[in-house]
Automatic annotation (TrEMBL):
An example Gene Ontology molecular-function term: flavin-dependent sulfhydryl oxidase activity
Comp. bias (Low complexity): 1-18, 87-97
Protein name: Sulfhydryl oxidase
Matching PANTHER family: ALR/ERV (PTHR12645), FAD-LINKED SULFHYDRYL OXIDASE ALR (PTHR12645:SF0)
Lineage: superkingdom: Eukaryota
Organism: Sphagnurus paluster
Localisation per UniProt entry: Mitochondrion intermembrane space
The protein's Enzyme Commission number: 1.8.3.2
GO CC annotations on file: mitochondrial intermembrane space
Length: 219
């Protein structure tokens, strides 16, 4: 998970240049074992040739885009869409269709799908967290958040989020505080990518993750 001001040098992903099959594609992320990390890499970079125009524009000069791609994946999903805005895929007749730059429906998730799913879970959990949680509920929420840097499959994302949690301890005092804390962590990543910040007022987070817009379009 990616949310700290800067990833730890010890855990910064590196971009491999070669293997037994020749030069590896830009954007592929190495895991802590020194091998290409599939769950840390966007499908478009694991399977060259699926890169979209949007992704090409997001790449950084000099080929240093593996960290940026991983951050973008966790912050806003594929193709520049945002989990804040709720636009994660192309639709046709209200039916979600597969994207060329995403894994087929029957395949394991890539870093982008995992990131979107994780943010969706965390933001929605915060929206339904009690206004006045009991000591047990607070302790359980803290355990959930502290478990992410230890258990999240993408180790580079997990280490980065863990470093951020040290700088900004979770606020589990109630759903308002927790919703804002998560929103601010998410916004930090979006800022690094030059993306628009989301308004972290509880009215806005509730509209996005709990109640839906006032126009009833989600009812």
């Amino acid at each position: 998970m990616t949310a700290s001001p800067a990833a730890s040098t010890a855990h910064a992903p590196t971009e491999p240049t070669s293997n037994s099959k020749g030069k590896m594609p830009p954007g592929m992320v190495m895991g802590p074992d020194g091998k290409p990390c599939k769950i840390c890499t966007a499908f478009r970079n694991w399977r060259p040739g699926t890169t979209t125009g949007t992704e090409a524009r997001e790449r950084r000069p000099g080929g240093q885009n593996s960290t940026a791609a991983m951050m973008a994946a966790f912050a806003s999903g594929a193709g520049g869409s945002s989990v804040f805005k709720g636009t994660t895929s192309t639709t046709s007749n209200s039916t979600t269709t597969a994207r060329a730059d995403a894994p087929p429906p029957n395949c394991p998730p890539d870093v982008e799908q995992l990131g979107r799913a994780t943010w969706t879970f965390l933001h929605t959990t915060a929206a339904y967290y009690p206004e006045r949680p009991t000591p047990t509920q607070r302790a359980n929420m803290l355990m959930l958040l502290r478990a992410l840097p230890l258990l999240y499959p993408c180790t580079n994302c997990a280490d980065d989020f863990g470093e951020d949690m040290k700088l900004h301890p979770p606020d589990v005092s109630g759903r308002v505080g927790l919703s804002r804390w998560l929103c601010e962590r998410h916004n930090e990543v979006n800022e690094k990518l030059g993306k628009e910040r989301f308004d972290c007022a509880i009215e806005k987070t509730d509209e996005r993750w709990k109640d839906g817009p006032m126009d009833g379009s989600c009812d």
